Every structure is written in structure tokens, then in C-alpha cells.
């Protein structure tokens, strides 16, 4: 399954593990101090054992605590030539919605826009979904181009062929991953809520062909058990019809 990916650029998108906000049903956004739960750490460790690659050229993570913790755990399982934080991988700035319960937010008149017209919606006092998608997609494309440049500079020798595949591991948030995957698949941003990305899951995109190829989505060791609440960032719910 994975052998065909070879040395070509491959991006693994790892969502942070289950957090205190996930278990509390809160839209955390950039609220400080949101950390992984014990369950989140344990589930994440089990899932990381399933990664198709253990050697990465780059490990890049969102600066928020839950992603720093996830990246630290991942770094104990994989080898990465470089590790860095990137603001481009930050969670959406949900503005006035940050820290509010999902049950409460589902009663907002704008909830339907979030689900059905994401490309046109800006969170009150915060960021638009389109802006977040643009910055994260630009970052992924920049990483892919960097990996391609590294491939071009790789010495052509039998030893080089045994070198590390050109993979990058990006640790970020659910809605960011969904936006990146939607772009890779050519989906309109308005349809990105059709994707589901569980906490602590990884998704894999192969950029070695003429068009990106999604080879895995929302993989966890527990299967769908870790995706009891579909979607990323809490914007999708089990009762996934908008209010009203």
C-alpha cells in the first residue's frame, strides 16, 4: 500500500490528540492552556505505532499547547531532521465563539453558514474560514516544494537511494486538516465539512503525481471509536443538520 509512495513528497497530517476541550464539548480555538487528556495521550501513542513512515525530513506543528504536546509525543516515535512550530498551522481564530460550548453555538443563526457556506463566513471578531484555509494550504505547498527541492539536490547514488523518503509530518487542528485535504482533492471549501478528522488521527497525501492523491484519511488505532463526534474543530456534530 505504502511502498508506491517512494521518495516523492508525502505529507502526513496529524491532528492533536483528544484534548480537555474535546471532552468538554467546547470550541477551544486559540484559548490558552487546552491540553491533552490522559486518554488522548494513550490513544495517540497507539495510533502513532501505525504510521506508514518513521523517518521524516520535517516535523512542523501548530504552536498551541495541545499540538506541542502531540508533536513531542510523535518525536519520541519518529525521527525528524528538523522540528519547528509554524503559526500557519494554528487553529482557526474563532473570535467571540472561542471557549463557548458547541451546544450553545448550534443555536446561533450563523451556524448554518458555517456548515453550508464556509467560504463566505467570518467568525465574529475572528478569522474567516477562507483565510485559515489559504494560510494552511500555502504552508503545505511550501513544504512540498521544499521536499521536491531536496529531492532534486539528493546525490544520485545507490547510497542516496537508501536515504530517508521525503516525508513531512504536520501536527495541527481538525478544521485546518480538512481544509488542506479539501484543497488536495479539488473540493470547494463550502464542502469541507463533508470530511471527518478524528482527534489523534493521521491522514496522508501523496504529492508525487501530477495531482495530489489522498491515501489515508483520519486513521486511528481505535477506528471510528475515536471519531464519535464527526468532523474537526467541533463544527460538525452527531446531529449534523444545522439548527432550525
Automatic annotation (TrEMBL):
Coiled-coil annotated spans: none
Single GO cellular component term: cytoplasm
Source superkingdom: Bacteria
GO MF entry, a single one: phosphatase activity
Pfam families: His_Phos_1
Protein name: 2,3-bisphosphoglycerate-dependent phosphoglycerate mutase
Naturally occurring in which organism (per UniProt): Brevibacterium celere
Lineage of source species: Bacteria, Bacillati, Actinomycetota, Actinomycetes, Micrococcales
Amino acid at each position: 500500500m505504502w511502498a508506491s509512495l517512494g521518495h516523492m513528497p508525502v505529507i502526513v497530517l496529524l491532528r492533536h490528540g483528544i484534548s480537555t476541550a474535546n471532552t468538554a464539548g467546547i470550541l477551544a480555538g486559540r484559548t490558552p492552556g487546552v491540553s491533552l487528556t490522559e486518554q488522548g495521550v494513550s490513544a495517540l501513542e497507539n495510533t502513532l505505532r501505525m504510521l506508514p513512515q518513521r523517518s521524516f525530513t520535517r516535523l512542523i506543528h501548530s504552536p498551541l499547547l495541545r499540538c506541542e504536546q502531540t508533536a513531542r509525543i510523535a518525536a519520541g516515535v519518529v525521527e525528524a531532521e528538523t522540528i519547528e512550530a509554524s503559526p500557519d498551522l494554528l487553529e482557526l481564530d474563532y473570535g467571540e465563539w472561542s471557549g463557548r460550548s458547541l451546544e450553545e453555538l448550534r443555536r446561533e443563526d450563523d451556524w448554518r453558514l458555517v456548515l453550508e457556506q464556509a467560504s463566505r463566513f467570518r467568525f465574529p471578531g475572528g478569522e474567516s474560514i477562507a483565510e485559515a484555509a489559504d494560510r494552511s494550504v500555502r504552508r503545505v505547498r511550501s513544504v512540498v516544494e521544499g521536499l521536491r527541492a531536496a529531492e532534486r539536490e539528493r546525490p544520485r547514488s545507490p547510497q542516496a537511494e537508501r536515504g530517508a523518503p521525503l516525508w513531512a509530518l504536520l501536527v495541527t487542528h481538525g478544521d485546518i486538516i480538512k481544509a488542506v485535504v479539501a484543497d488536495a482533492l479539488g473540493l470547494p471549501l463550502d464542502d469541507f465539512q463533508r470530511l471527518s478528522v478524528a482527534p489523534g488521527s493521521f491522514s496522508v497525501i501523496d504529492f508525487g503525481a501530477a495531482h495530489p492523491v489522498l491515501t489515508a484519511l483520519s486513521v486511528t488505532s481505535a477506528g471510528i471509536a475515536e471519531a464519535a463526534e464527526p468532523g474537526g474543530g467541533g463544527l460538525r456534530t452527531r446531529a449534523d443538520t444545522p439548527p432550525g
